[in-house]
Design brief:
The complex is a heterodimer.
Chain A lengths: L7 H9 L3 H23 L2 H18 L9 H22 L25 H19 L2 H12 L4 H8 L3 H21 L6 H4 L3
Chain B lengths: L2 H7 L2 H6 L4 H13 L1 H19 L7 H12 L4 H36 L24 H23 L13 H9 L10 H6 L6 E4 L9 H7 L4 E6 L3 H14 L3 E3 L4 H7 L2 E7 L3 H9 L10 E4 L4 H10 L1 H6 L4 E3 L2 H9 L5 H14 L4 H12 L6 E2 L1 H10 L6 E9 L29
Parallel strand pairs in B: 2-8, 5-6
Antiparallel strand pairs in B: 1-2, 3-4, 4-8, 5-7
Classes of the chains: A mainly alpha, B alpha/beta.
């Protein structure tokens, strides 16, 4: 029986006993969504890779303390948020560090999206870049919650756990984040929500 | 906007997610049917959320899993990995201190005690193999040794490069020289000739060990609960060295606190805790460096081991490089370490190139230096730390952000009678962590 066929619970049991291979399977199963979240929070592919590695190395060190009161993914998100926040803290203090974020804090287009393609594909890529850029313009606390909720699909309860916030704060912050994103998208070149901004 | 509309809009986000109580949801639904403004607001939010939902997932790069597993299994088990990362992350700060404190003690102790050997080579008596303090794993030891080794050797090279011949010429009075050194006065073109000619191998010897970091845990994290950095200084005159360093308290340059020193003194000799206001960190560095950089254009350079000789030659030969790197140039195996322990395999080539480029790219301006510093921070290659970057890196890990606490240990020289290799058990400030991971 290969590791790939074990349940998460079994793999966790083994990983908590120091089984690196079992933990490796857990990394495989979780690395994509963690990387996706980190990437959309920090806006740089290079930093996202570094930070995602850091998350899984840290998680392995701490896995003995994982009590399974929450989902493993939620626990990983907590570690991820620590790493991302540390990254932001360093970036604020050491300027001009992040090649993926512009001077105004917005995300620059990722290199893969620079390739010219058929018209429709180009428009879709532009739209993706605009949305990612708008995320990058949000305050960090808004970026966290909007990525976790609307990209990663965490429930309100999971948001409370991962962000360590009370329910009311989760709701109000998510509302503020979405409203802020809506405004930025309305002001963007595609203006695909411009109608919605009228009358406010 | 009407109060009713304001209340409704604050619930639109939850309405979209379907998490409102049934009755409230019906109210919102009824309102947006009636109110075009709120309906547009709801549509805008829905579009925004949809746009987020539509974003393509950016999966982890193919090399990521292997890189993680390499870190976990490739001789870098959790505890070690943390320590290595700590060392690499803050190594520019530690290296800077090693370089500058070494210079300081080489001269300051001698200024008090006089030359013991009369050697013109400030580090002539250094053994080829340097002892390593405070690490229990071979891997971490090797890393620290390399870091320290590079620092010491380059300090040696640079100081020995054409300045010792002035040893007896126009030597200022001892007190004058001490004062000029403490003010960061530089005589001539770059390295501090006044310092070099007074330096003596018997009285100045230092090793740095890893820098603590509460973020990453491990043994270093335990230290960090009390100290931001740990610096070991080897000298056969520990009391005098301690006195010299403490003398800056009188000058008001930084704050010296002794708390915690006594309990460690019986194991490792005198210790000293420097508690430095973060905003004065630059000044302290300058005090220790003697050759005061006038601004952030002056940087500490960390280059690949194989480039050491070339870099040192430039230091000696080119005035502008002297100016650019007055604070000191340190070459060691950092890039190799970065690739081995930190950099993903895919970045190895990039790290290599950065290392090769380092000589011409760093130190010319603060921005470049800071960029390189971050590269070191991320473990991607060659690092350069400007004083400002060093300060921010140290300050950001300070508990209250206002002070940098450094534990300075004074250890006997390696060849002193009765000297034993420092182990974790005797390592000051390091105690078994109650929260250590089982895997560690």
């Amino acid at each position: 029986m290969t590791n790939g066929s074990y349940s998460e619970s079994v793999l966790l049991d083994r990983a908590q006993r120091g089984d690196v291979e079992a933990y490796g399977e857990l990394v495989l199963r979780n690395q994509d969504y963690i990387h996706n979240a980190v990437y959309h929070m920090v806006g740089s592919a290079e930093d996202a890779e570094d930070l995602t590695q850091e998350v899984f190395v840290k998680a392995f060190r701490a896995i003995g303390r994982f009590r399974r009161k929450s989902k493993f993914s939620t626990w990983l998100y907590g570690i991820m948020l620590n790493s991302v926040r540390n990254h932001w803290r360093r970036s604020r203090k050491v300027l001009s560090l992040d090649a993926g974020v512009g001077d105004d804090g917005s995300l620059r287009p990722d290199p893969e999206a620079d390739t010219e393609g058929p018209g429709e594909l180009t428009i879709r890529r532009e739209r993706v870049q605009i949305v990612r850029g708008a995320i990058g313009e949000l305050d960090e606390d808004m970026r966290e919650i909007i990525v976790l909720r609307d990209l990663q699909g965490l429930s309100y309860e999971e948001l409370q756990e991962a962000l360590d916030l009370p329910a009311g704060t989760v709701k109000s912050r998510l509302f503020r984040a979405r409203a802020a994103l809506k405004e930025r998208l309305a002001d963007g070149p595609l203006g695909f929500t411009e109608n919605a901004s009228e009358g406010i | 906007m009407k109060t009713k509309c304001r209340n409704i809009r604050e619930q639109l986000s939850e309405f979209l997610d379907g998490v409102l109580p049934e009755e409230t949801a019906r109210e919102v639904s009824a309102h947006v049917r009636e109110c075009s403004s709120c309906r547009l607001e709801l549509e805008g939010l829905r579009d925004a959320v949809q746009a987020l939902n539509d974003l393509p997932t950016v999966p982890a790069p193919e090399a990521l899993h292997a890189a993680v597993m390499d870190k976990l299994a490739g001789g870098s088990m959790p505890a070690k990995s943390g320590l290595v990362r700590v060392c690499l992350r803050l190594m520019p700060v530690a290296a800077l201190f090693v370089a500058v404190v070494g210079v300081t003690f080489a001269v300051s102790v001698n200024l008090v005690g006089g030359a013991a050997t009369g050697s013109t080579d400030p580090f002539a008596a250094l053994p080829a193999e340097r002892p390593v303090a405070g690490e229990s794993t071979a891997e971490a030891t090797e890393t620290v040794d390399d870091i320290v080794g590079g620092v010491v050797e380059e300090a040696h090279d640079a100081m020995a490069a054409g300045v010792t011949e002035t040893r007896d010429a126009n030597a200022p009075a001892r007190q004058d020289l001490q004062m000029s050194a403490m003010r960061g006065h530089v005589q001539g073109g770059g390295w501090t000739p006044g310092v070099a000619r007074e330096a003596d191998a018997e009285t100045g010897r230092e090793l740095a060990e890893g820098v603590a970091d509460r973020v990453f845990g491990s043994a270093g994290g335990v230290v960090a609960q009390r100290f931001d950095q740990v610096l070991s200084i080897r000298t056969d005159a520990p009391d005098r060295a301690r006195e010299e360093l403490a003398s800056d308290e009188v000058a008001g340059r930084f704050i010296v606190a002794d708390e915690g020193a006594e309990e460690q003194a019986d194991k490792s000799g005198p210790t000293l805790v420097l508690r430095i206001p973060a905003e004065q960190y630059d000044n302290v560095l300058r005090r220790l460096a003697l050759g005061t950089p006038p601004d952030d254009n002056h940087a500490l350079v960390l280059a690949k081991a194989e480039d050491r000789g070339k870099v040192a030659d430039r230091l000696r030969q080119k005035t502008d490089w002297y100016e650019g790197f007055r604070e000191g140039i340190v070459a060691q195996k950092r890039a190799n370490r970065a690739m081995r322990y930190e950099a993903p395999a895919a970045e190895a080539v990039e790290a290599e190139q950065m290392a090769a480029d380092a000589e011409v790219r760093v130190g010319r301006n603060a921005e470049t230096a800071t960029d390189r510093s971050f590269d070191a921070h991320a473990g991607r290659g060659v690092g350069v730390s400007s004083p400002a970057a060093a300060r921010t890196m140290a300050a950001e890990d300070t508990e209250d952000g206002a002070f940098v606490s450094i534990l300075v240990r004074f250890l006997p020289p390696e060849d002193a009678p009765g000297k034993e290799r420092v182990t974790d058990e005797s390592r000051p400030g390091v105690a078994p962590s109650p929260t250590e991971d089982p895997a560690e």
